[in-house]
Amino acid sequence: xxxxxxxxxxxxxxLNGPVAHRYTGLFRLDQTVFRNLSxxxxxxxxxxxxxxxxxxxxxxxxxxxxxxxxxxxxSGTDGRLNGHKYQGVLLxxxxxxxxxxxxxxxxxxxxxxxxxxxxxxDEFDLMQQAARTxxxxxxx
Length: 140
Known about the structure:
Layout: H1 2-16, E1 23-30, E2 33-41, E3 53-55, H2 61-67, E4 70-72, E5 92-99, E6 105-113, H3 121-134
Helix pairs in contact: 1-3
């Protein structure tokens, strides 16, 4: 109901409310780039330019696509990220895939932060449910 009444930004704000992460974002996969469609920032800052379009190989979103979801509380100690450009820079990332109306991969929904943040399982489950709801609003 929040999504229907307040759109993507309202939906992201709702998801971000109970979590410690600074950012909650929706990214669309556009060939070799993840494009940010909407970003909620707890601090109310303007979206950083580097988050507008993130090359596939520099994004943690790529691991969502590879693994079906991706969670790391501290990227600096996560061996799955060894050698990644943002390992130890973007410390916390929790993401799930978003499908379009036809059931095709559209992009990712994620919570992330430059600080180490845990994400309780119930909040991760809510994010997965929200991704299914967001799919009704996604168009190519």
